[in-house]
Amino acid sequence: MIPIRIDSAWKGTSDCRSCGIRDMVLFADLNEQDFSEMHTPIDDLSFGAGDVMYAEGQSAQGLFTLRKGTVKLIRTTVDGRERIVRVLRPGDVIGLEALVTSRYDSEAVAMVDVSVCRIPLSVINHLSANSPRLHLRLMQKWQQALKDADDWLAELNFGSARQRVARLALKMREPEEPRFTAFFARDDMGSMLDLKLETVSREISGLVRDGALKACDKQGRRYEILNEKMLMN
Predict the structure, then answer these.
(1) Residue 171 — φ and ψ, nearest 5°?
(2) What are the pLDDT digits (tens) for 83-102?
(3) How far apart (Å, rounded) are the C-alpha atoms in residues 69 and 90?
(4) Predicted TM-score (pTM) of this structure
(5) Which of 52, 66, 104, 135 has its CB 3.0 to 4.6 Å from that of 3, i.e. a possible disulfide?
(6) Is residue 185 within 8 Å of 112, Cβ to Cβ?
(7) For 162-184, what is the HEC assignment?
């Protein structure tokens, strides 16, 4: 995959104070004085499905907060295979590792059309040093990212094929309507669960046939959870 080119200038198009998901992202606890400390603007960016936000090992320009859509993080194994290590959803912070290494340790790819805020590392470093509120929020986000990574590994890479697909269905529930879950391309699901595409499709069909899930669209992306206990077994 070839990364798309992004204008390196910070245009300052974001309005963090009126952000619709502000309570979910880094700046939830900042006050007016904290905002006045932002001397480098923050950009709103959009990526289309399949666009590469940044490449594995690339020098970092900043962090991203995800406002809309889903993003997959991909790492290349020693034998050249690509594995999806996490899927990020609105409210998640992308590229936290850049605060330590100044490089991204995964490739970030938009799974659907996404909207993000790109925050320069200089802004994060300055505010982290001068705002205890942001420093605490950064630590909370970091801890949550580590927990999520552990959960993905523990829950989605062990057990039978049916168990892996069922756990993914539970993990990808819609926050606003948890009785619905959102799947994505079957090959992406296979990469994440370490299963063949055909196996993923067969197990989803089995869960529908057995009454655990009900398809809500022709694309096979949105399902209603009819039997949560069956998915948890």
Answers:
(1) -70, -30
(2) 888 888 888 889 888 888 88
(3) 6
(4) 0.71
(5) 52
(6) no
(7) HHHHHHHHHHCECCCCCCEEECC
Q: Span 196-223, mean pLDDT?
A: 93
Report the amino acid identity of residue 6.
I
Q: What is the C-alpha separation between 183 and 168, in angstroms, rounded?
A: 8
Strand order in the sheet with 71-76: 52-54, 107-110, 71-76, 82-88
- Burial of residue 137 (CB within 10 Å: 0-12, 13-18, 19+) is buried
Q: Which residues contact 146 (CB under 8 A, 6 or more apart)?
A: none
The per-residue pLDDT for 228 is: 94
Strand ranges (DSSP E) for the chain? 43-47, 52-54, 62-68, 71-76, 82-88, 93-94, 107-110, 114-120, 180-182, 213-215, 222-225
- Average pLDDT on 132-143 reads 71
Catalogue all structural domains in the chain, each as residue range(s) with its CATH number. Answer: 16-156 (2.60.120.10), 161-232 (1.10.10.10)
HSE-CB at 183 with a 13 A cutoff on CA atoms is 31
List, in order, residues 6 or more apart from 125 with CB less than 8 Å away. 99
d(CA 120, CA 73): 20
